[in-house]
TrEMBL record:
E.C. designation(s): 3.1.1.3
Species classification: Eukaryota, Fungi, Dikarya, Ascomycota, Saccharomycotina
Gene3D superfamilies: alpha/beta hydrolase
Organism, scientific name: Candida oxycetoniae
Name this protein carries in UniProt: Putative lipase ATG15
UniProt-recorded Gene Ontology molecular function terms: phospholipase activity; triacylglycerol lipase activity
Length: 524
């Protein structure tokens, strides 16, 4: 506005006359403001929430058939002193699907019918958890996301996108017994980096296709593969005779064990193998923790051995939380003192999950040679941690969902890592949410749900990138064990954000800082 000369009022007072600016200047100002706001909105990344109802399905018909994944094989590796040599494969062929078509139709129908019942049960679980308790008998047999309800888990088509990436990994990693020899030697020298560097390992910089983790549909597909590993397969009298399973291990049936329970009736590690239509991309989904007090853990057929491996991988010392706890190994020596050599030997035992995962990968590579195939690994919870360890061993692109901290186990196994690895060459992505106490590493303490269920989840540190959905801030969620469930992650977290979680480096982190780990090999 402009000022005019001073004038006199009716009673002699002085004042300025003010004249409004021309209308065109006001119009110019409004247009300028609109232009500035538009530029800011386009440039600055804005993350906001929006809700997708179960009816809004993930698109499953991408333009190219080569950009979809479908379940082709299921590997099951026996665990335990008696069954660790047992390893079989179930091929999901068109003939297999046709043979069990009636079961798949009933499975889809039952899942759809149970949706309302499960929602009511989930509300009861949430009320129970908020009171500080948990229904240890409640496990979700169909831990299948709502977005895929009514669809057959065995023939579902999952879309995915890739991007080119450079990974530094061992050049001779696929040579027979090379990895095993390296791990044995690394353990013999207590992982001493100075000594390991003397053997002059050859590393290769490989240009590979990795999952595009910024694409939401791709992340949903990988999480669905993790969820698929919980789904039970059809059983009938003929199935019980194991006619569909192919032996790929060292186990030979005999008169005493010719009808040994296998697959979903036997303890062990399971890997669901999804393959693209052009056979150029293979994704191995590792099954996570089952039942036994943790909600959303799928069926409980392997819960006992799962708990043993959970407590070995994610506790400071064999689940020695207190004198009332039953330890899973004999490495505890005295108060806050543990035998490091003993821990490392326990993790490398042939009847543990890590060694079983190595065997599953080797058998997958016999079907899909790594020289011509991109192999990825994924998994949820315990499955995500095992997937991460497998990915670190062979330099495989890995997406872990709600995995407990596996850095401690990775260090104890002395997994190969190139010296001076730049952060931009990291190939492991951990997705989690701030309301999941297992992923955040806070599901411990005498009164925690994990401890009450017998799980010693004492680690919080992850390797690789951390991609965290801050649902506590964005949605106002409380930290609750029910937020660890895979279908909750898919339906209520990933699909309610318009972007995937940003991935950042793991901040400096150390687990079990109050423990003393001793190596008696040094004294010999």
């Amino acid at each position: 506005m402009t000022r005019m000369p001073i004038e006199k009022g009716p009673q002699g007072q002085s004042y300025y006359r003010r004249r409004l600016p021309p209308l065109r200047f006001i119009s110019y100002s409004l247009v300028s403001i609109c232009i500035v706001v538009t530029i800011v909105v386009k440039i600055l990344p804005v993350r906001h929430l929006y809700v997708i109802t179960p009816e809004e399905k993930v698109e499953e018909t991408p333009e190219e058939n080569s950009k979809t994944l479908q379940l082709k094989h299921i590997f099951h590796h026996g665990i335990g002193a008696k069954d660790y040599t047992l390893h079989k494969r179930l091929d999901i062929t068109p003939a297999y699907l046709a043979k069990h078509s009636s079961y798949f139709k009933s499975l889809s129908f039952v899942e759809a019918e149970k949706e309302e019942v499960e929602e009511a049960e989930e509300e009861e679980e949430e009320e129970e958890a908020e009171k500080g308790g948990i229904n240890v008998l409640n496990t979700n047999t169909f831990d299948w996301p709502k977005v895929h309800r009514g669809k057959n888990p065995f023939d579902i088509q999952l879309p995915f996108k890739t991007k080119q990436y450079k990974i530094k990994r061992l050049k001779d990693r696929h040579e027979p017994f090379f990895i095993e020899s390296y791990l044995d030697y690394a353990r013999s020298v207590n992982g001493n980096a100075e000594i390991l560097n003397r053997i002059n390992l050859e590393w290769s910089d490989d240009d590979v296709s990795v999952p595009n983790i910024t694409d939401r549909d791709t992340l949903v597909s990988l999480a669905t593969i993790s969820s698929n590993a919980y789904v039970r397969f059809p059983k009938d009298d003929e199935e019980k005779k194991k006619s569909d399973w192919i032996d790929v291990g060292d186990w030979d049936p005999d008169e005493q064990h010719n009808n040994i329970n296998f697959g979903w009736d036997s303890i062990g590690l399971r890997g669901h193998v999804f393959v693209s239509h052009d056979n150029k991309t293979v994704v191995i989904g590792i099954k996570g923790t089952s039942g036994a007090g943790l909600p959303g853990g799928g069926s409980d057929e392997t819960s006992g051995i799962d708990k043993t491996n959970d407590n070995l991988l994610f506790s400071c010392c064999c689940a020695r939380v207190g004198y009332m706890w039953t330890t899973v190994c004999d490495c505890y020596e005295k108060t806050y003192t543990c035998n490091q050599d003993c821990l490392e030997r326990e993790l490398r035992r042939k009847d543990r999950y890590y060694e079983a995962a190595l065997d599953i990968y080797k058998n997958v590579t016999k079907l899909y040679p790594p020289e011509t195939t991109e192999i990825w690994v994924t998994g949820h919870s315990l499955g995500g941690a095992v997937a991460s360890l497998l990915g670190r061993t062979y330099g495989l692109p890995t997406v872990a969902i709600e995995s407990p901290g596996e850095m401690l186990a990775s260090n104890r196994l002395h997994l190969p890592k190139p010296p001076g690895l730049p952060r931009h060459l990291e190939h492991i992505w951990h997705f989690g949410n701030t309301a999941d106490p297992i992923y955040m590493g806070v599901c411990n303490g005498a009164s925690s749900s994990c401890s009450l269920a017998g799980y010693a989840m004492e680690t919080a540190c992850h390797t690789g990138y951390q991609c965290v959905y801050d649902v506590v801030t964005d949605k106002g969620w409380r930290v609750n064990l029910l937020n660890h469930r895979i279908h909750t992650v898919i339906d209520d977290i990933i699909l309610t954000y318009n972007e995937t979680a940003p991935c950042v480096d793991q901040a400096p982190c150390r687990d079990c800082f109050n423990w003393r780990f001793v190596s008696h090999d040094d004294d010999e």
